[in-house]
Amino acid sequence: MLKIENLHAEIDGKEILKGLDLEVKPGEIHAIMGPNGAGKSTLGYVLGGRPEYEVTQGSVTFQPNPVHAELVDAPSFSSGEGKSSPSTGSGRTEEEWVDLLTLEPHERAAVGMFLGFQYPVEIPGISNVQFLREALNSQRRARGEEPLSGSDFLKRARAQADALGMDQDMLKRPVNVGFSGGEKKRNEMVQMGIIDPRFAILDETDSGLDIDALKTVGEGINRIMRKPDKGVLLITHYQRLLEYVEPDAVHVLAAGRIVRSGGPELAVELEREGYQAAAA
């Protein structure tokens, strides 16, 4: 459902990604591990569409959720090479792919991409409820779906907050303002549960979490995203989160390329031996 081929990307003229290849199939969770400066967060930003990063070579194709039908006023998507399938008047076909790199960030969200930040941003003056309802209904409108009513949205938001063990009063507070590091990450999981994306890129979701919060967040990822029609790219330094979210594949990213791939046992080896020894 996500195919990255020979991806090169730079920021301020400095090349960070240097020919990255990766494929994630529906139902799979892949972990990206690697040392500081390897390009892990850059990969997340490029997939999310952060404008400071320039893709200089390569392609990223993505398979949107066919259930979510066609986009309204959608941009001129170009299908992935060899994977094209004509659209129909009723919406997207199951085989259709889009060229992710041609889409603006909000368009990537509308086709089902979710980016969890390493450092979740604070938005003073905008409550969680306001922010999430507008985000969700904007995506629904872009897909040609009816917006959720206020009561239906609040029911969904409260259910997700309860499932993540977050006090419902935090939904009324400005987005992440005054939240601890762990509360911000837990709030991000609530956001993901409400948006219910097709594919999630989670950048160091385990940072700043205590033992109990780590378990709660891990269970949240499994509950929301461990489904046959979804996928996850889990960016992390450590094996500890993978004790709760077992990946289908683990990749070592070093100097802008994936230098080694394996199963969950690779994460254990990395924790024991370190990146330099395991990737040699």
TrEMBL record:
UniProt cross-references to PROSITE patterns, sorted A to Z: ABC_TRANSPORTER_2 (PS50893)
Highest taxon, organism lineage: Bacteria
Family annotation (InterPro entries): ABC_transporter-like_ATP-bd (IPR003439), FeS-cluster_ATPase_SufC (IPR010230), P-loop_NTPase (IPR027417)
Record region (Disordered): 72-95
Keyword tags: ATP-binding, Nucleotide-binding
All copies of domain ABC transporter, residue ranges: 2-280
Pfam family, one: ABC_tran
SUPFAM superfamilies: P-loop containing nucleoside triphosphate hydrolases
Residue ranges, compositional bias (Low complexity): 76-91
Gene3D superfamilies: P-loop containing nucleotide triphosphate hydrolases (3.40.50.300)
Record flagged with keyword Cytoplasm: no
PANTHER family per the UniProt record, alphabetical: ABC TRANSPORTER I FAMILY MEMBER 6, CHLOROPLASTIC
Family designation: Belongs to the ABC transporter superfamily. Ycf16 family.
Name assigned to this protein: Fe-S cluster assembly ATPase SufC
Organism: Stakelama saccharophila
